Structure of Lectin, mannose-binding 2-like:
Amino acid sequence: MAPVNTSKCFDFKPPMGFFSRREMALKYILILIFILLTINTCSCDDDHEMEEFLKREHSLSKPYQGVGALGSSHWELMGDAMVTTDQVRLTPDMQSRQGAVWSRIPCHLKDWEMQVHFKIHGQGKKNLNGDGLAIWYTKERMQKGPVFGNMDNFTGLGVFVDTYPNEEKHIEAQKKRYTPRTQRIFPYVLAMVGNGSVSYDHERDGRPTELGGCNAMVRNLKHDSFLFIRYVRRRLTVMIDIDGQHEWRDCLDIPGVRLPLGYYFGASAVTGDLSDNHDIISLKLYQLTVLRSKKEEEEEEQAEMTIPSVDNMDLLQLGQNEAGMSGLSIFFTVLFSMLGCIFLIVIGIVVYSQWNESRRKRFY
């Protein structure tokens, strides 16, 4: 019996291109893994690219030693503001009061974060209280005025905790109604950047110049309430912690905000016919150390700012106007959009039918 040649049985020759396709697939898998690892590394780097340092000379906290005393503190009181053992009370729960506390030292930090521990409380019931408080980073300081106890036409940043709906009451007096899309829930937190010539529209609760905002039910809370303001790489972020869960909730996030160095931090409040206690428990400023490339540093040095501004402010206002469309405008917008879609569908069907008909004729 002749021996069986087993070499032919195991002499397997893969088809042409087998290993090349396998190598290509393996290469794509390795590239995908590398990309995922890179993204993960970048996200980790983003989480650790900032370090924060408490700046005591720009912070206000207990026991408020020397606050308001001439030359013995970094902070100065104005108006009806007074210091107690537990807080700096900007206004008492009394009519027609206004008060403020201002830093004496200008801030020259590029990137910073302000954490505000505050409290608003009083005997007034819902919509029978007012008017609110503001946190400032402005060129001017120690100026009384109508904007939550500060001057109008300010230069810099204002973040407002507005507790009274002036515009809503004005519309109700004219026997008109808000649309559900435009109505706000008060108290309301909003931000505004002023260049020295822009006025805050008190009757409209700052809508024309608002960068963004959110509702925040901060009155008469039994737990602590906090406001978080961060300015990094010309990006303004505001968050709130008012639910007692120690969790920040997004309020607004606006890129392209340009704030010069050397402005002053402050807080102010005002009451009118209605009132509240407006208390500041602490203002803690943190310096943020942010990693920047040489190119970014050179661009920032070349674009040194002297007047506050916001990139694409027209687009922000356009978005607010669109958000404020009446119900009738929304109805017609939806109606014409639907009619336009139906018209395009009909044209598409007609064109396709004609093309299909001519295609069939070519085969006869």
